[in-house]
Amino acid sequence: MTRQGPRDDIDENDLVVGSAKDYAAGVPAVLVSMQRAVEQMGVVRTARTLTRLNQRHGFDCPGCAWPETPGHRKPAEFCENGAKAVAEEATLRTVTPEFFASHPMSLLAERTDYWLGQQGRITHPMVVRPGGDRYEPIGWDDAYRLIAEHLRGLDSPDEAVFYTSGRTSNEAAFVYQAMIRSFGTNNLPDCSNMCHESSGSALTETIGIGKGSVTVPDLEQADLILIAGQNPGTNHPRMLSTLEKAKANGAKIIAINPLPEAGLLRFKDPQKVGGVVGHGVPIADEFLQIRLGGDMALFQGLGRLLLEADDRNPGSVVDRAFVDAHCAGFDDWAAHVRAVDLDTVALATGLTRRQLDETAAALAASERTVVCWAMGLTQHAHAVATIQETVNVLLARGMIGKTGAGVCPVRGHSNVQGDRTMGIWEQMPEEFLAALDAEFGISSPRSHGFDTVDAIRAMRDGRARVFVAMGGNFVSATPDTAATEQALRNCELTVQVSTKLNRSHVVHGRTALILPTLGRTDLDVQDTGKQAVSVEDSMSMVHLSRGRLHPVSEHLRSEIAIVCQLARELLGADHPVPWRRFEADYDLIRDSISRVVPGFEDYNVRVRRPDGFQLPHPPRDSREFPTHTGKANFTVSPLEWVPTPAGRLILQTLRSHDQYNTTVYGLDDRYRGIKNGRKVVFVSAPDIAELGLHDGQIVDIVSEWTTADGRLEERRVHGFRVVEYSTPRGNAAAYYPETNPLVPLDHVAAKSNTPVSKAIVVRLDPVGNS
Fold first, then answer.
1. How many CA atoms lie within 13 A of 535 on its CB side?
2. What's the CA gap between 733 and 297, in Å, rounded?
3. Is CATH 3.40.50.740 correct for 115-192+415-600?
4. Which CATH architecture has domain 197-409?
5. pLDDT means per 10 residues in the chain (770 residues)?
6. Residue 217 belongs to what H/E stretch?
7. CATH number for the domain formed by residue range(s) 649-766
8. Is-same-fold flag (115-192+415-600; 197-409)?
């Protein structure tokens, strides 16, 4: 075990490019998991954590939000990246006041996100004063007074921004938003604004609730699963076990993605003999290597082909009984997609007519269809309309509110869905705000606040002066890094509630605070004894999480304690929310939630059931659709796609296998053949030749963006190695956060305002031509 983080940072000269893998997991996943865990935690701590990870009396994985199978949990209920996430949080490496004393800001600013994260857990509250060059210790009470003074000194509460990471528990999110709304603002941006906001916008308009409509058993019983714009092998590895069960039950799986992903090619379950010594299980029956931004065209083309199949045999494809009883807008949608030109669909998608016909035939034959998606669909300018097109196809087939069928947006952060349910949103509906006010006797503001993109704009323009983050790494998670960094530096105060060091501690306001908090793995003891928190997974299951490890420092406080203590300082001892009682007993927070949030009635009893409880979902449960029409809505959108300009490529940003969101665990993307580095750009062989480049060449990536007033802006990142890879012609891929500087702040999705990180026009400049 290494008690200290690495002294050396990434050296891209050590980068090695090998062959991409054609399978996920297997023995290498086990070996890497154990190696990383023991390096960070030691043998004993590793055993204590991994055996409790995702178990009924253990703690929820701080990684992704993939649910467990109801009623059954394996002894090892975690994946490789889950083990890495736990190792990073439960590490015995520490970042102490002595570390900060020997590391001035100028030195930390030169370090990568990887190096910063590897230093370990922050042990004390720290502050940088105006003009200071390093963090210094500060007492908790002094830190709260400092924050309260800055907040009370604002001309308006709307000059403060309160960001939330998706790892925050239900209870912490609920008290956090109650404090913020008591203070007087709805400026509650969160990480969902940058990922599944497009899903929420699309689903709310079409089926009336912005969440997925399926469960794990639904996926296991489906006979057709479409997986679009998602890489389960890296981003949601435990999903592969569910897909393996679906395959065993006879499901056909179609992968729709620009890159061939190892997890969708073949899965070797390391908990089975066949996954250790055998060939494993092929997952995808078909791979549609779609061009970036072509998914809307695909689903509109599939809609036309389904209608034509129904014309040939009326009533055999379109579920007229479902459409007539439960849907609105079918005729307008049908007229629109019948006019879609299939040659344009082929051009936009890069697919053949045979592939389109065979996919439509699979949809027509299926009795139980699920469509899964992630960021590959949500981070496009036309993302909301694209997701609505997938819903259109499912509605036409009657696949909502049916066992083994439905929509499955696969969330990333472990409680990003729960945080939204708890009120972390800049535009919560009146019903929630009225119930919150009635519960506590407060007056919540009604005007909508800033989402993430608008918060950056407000800080950049001087309309917001204080920034508070409950977890996360705002600088590295957001688009247009230069604009984001300048926005934070414009602030009078920035506050980071954190477990570990990250880029957002280095880029800060004139005064900056780090408040160290307990993690998901840590034992949380308050005045009434040991506490537990709860989370909501991707499929609306709510369950408890109980940390057991003794914290690495006595100076750490839980997120709930930090919020409640700050609220007392900010709002006064006579404020009607019982902050002190909430801090002492989390059951009392859940009692209030049960009276404010629909579906949480009798919360404290139901969440203690072995697998927790599932929140209601009217479209799934009873084919009731709480939309403006009272029915599920077909939508009509003009066909949009992303042509590649001459001499340019369309770039998508993505994760390596050795990272989760902005947390970089290591420097190997094993499945894509990358080792000891991250600055690579994946390009097809024909594009490399056409652009006059060669495999292995070092280039700068330059994004080109035309502003609203017609100006051409360029953004540049330096020193990336060209890697020949299987990508569609005209497309490319590279890792974030290294390529976040290329994403313009104003390049956002219609309706959702989500940054468009999957469709950036770039050119590759050979180094020396810069």
1. 27
2. 21
3. yes
4. 3-Layer(aba) Sandwich (3.40)
5. 67 92 72 69 70 66 73 66 78 94 95 94 97 97 98 98 94 98 98 93 97 95 97 83 93 96 79 62 94 98 98 96 98 98 98 98 98 96 98 98 96 84 97 98 98 98 98 95 98 97 96 96 95 93 90 97 98 97 98 98 96 95 97 98 96 93 89 95 98 98 95 97 98 97 97 97 84
6. helix 216-221
7. 2.40.40.20
8. no
